[in-house]
Input
Amino acid sequence: MSKRLLALLVNCALLFTLNFMQGCGARRTPDLGRIFAGVRGRKGKRPVIVIPGILGSRIVNQKTGEVVWPSAFRSDVDGLSLPTTPDLANNRDELVASRIVEAARLAKIAPEVYVYYHLLRALEDYGGYREGDWANPPEGGDQDTFYVFSYDWRRDNVESARLLVKRIEALKLKLGRPDLRFNVVAHSMGGLVARYAAMYGDRDLPPEGDALRPDWAGASFVNKIFMFGTPNAGSAEALAVLLEGYSVTEGLRPRVHLLNQLSRDDVMTAPSIFQLLPYGPAARFLDRDLRPLSVDLYDPSVWRRFGWSAANDPDFRAAYERGDLRGQEAPTGRGTLAELDAYFDAVLARARRFHEALETQTADAPVKLFAFGGDCEETLSAPVIMRDEKTGRWLTLTRPQSLRGSDGRKFKRDEVVRAMYAPGDGRVTRDSLIGTGLGGGGRASAFYETPLPVAYAAFACDLHSELQNNRTLQDNALTLLVSELTS
Output
């Protein structure tokens, strides 16, 4: 091999590793500086609220100030697990949300991981917005300003939505603009929080059996919602997380290795994770022959039958009953298995009701949705449930592998991938983002085939954790945002 060819290959490999090049060819991205040069200085733009997704807000101890998330190592004092009692609203600890996670250096020798930094800089540098303070908004903060809504992403999404409503109403009062409506830019789960706030305002979920009637109270303060990778029909990856825990480095570029991961124990205590589970037609399962399998994902007996989540793991239950799991017992002392099971029943019922509330649409929704996502990655859509031939135990496959059917037929891995996966961003499928298959009686768009009020959608080839930083999607979103002036 010639030295020149060797040097070319080495340079190509280095550039690929650094993600500045793709296949030794330049990755073409829009020059946002040039594109928006003529409108960056436009005054009077409608203000924006930015809502991060799960893991996107810093979690700190409100007494000590210790940053518990993001952090390379687990805290010696605080875990990320909430208490597990059936009184979901009062399962609290000493942790609160602070700022959005712009960037994080998760280890001394690791490079910084940019989470929402590039999104916020795009709003400032190309859109001509400035960041505002909720408590002390700047003069003229009713235009050309963005406000970041940080929240405790472990907690119930309805609770977070109601907190958002209170924050907005207080901000409007400070600005002296009772008529002010904001555009919302939301990533992932943040889009669900925004949608609930728009549809129901400060109302809690009604009791089981009561009719769900969105009154669109949030239309008094929300103009449009720009969703980046929002799982409107849920995500099968949420089930995988509840089964296996969550590696926060998966999908990050560059990849780093941490000791602070979200364990199965952690995620089982977070109502928000259950509210990300797939719903309706999106809740698909397959048997060992890759045929559809009917499963009620919100029935606690199903979870117990298949041994899903830490709450149904014998070792976890034994440790829970002994009182070995700090922070998950009742505030009065050691937890009981009856209490754990009651918690599990309550959190699943709440998740089903949350999805029902978002699915219920009206014919003429006053708040339109704008969807931005990825559809180039194989994304889990239908886990496989089968019995282990040796042990007789149930297995749930969330990652593809070659299989042998009930009649002895061998399915190659590629066949299993096609059955289990669908186009998406690696965590949220394209269909979930735009709400394909959801019911609710709303008018379906002829193009997007969804009852949701999706007015526009754009897609790019990127991972879920990078969508908000994708320049092509930022180009689309900014084009729509900067064209709107405060009325």
Remarks:
- DSSP finds 14 helices and 20 strands in the chain.
- Residues 45-313+346-481 form one domain.
- The first helix runs from residue 3 to 17.
- The first strand starts at residue 21 and ends at 22.
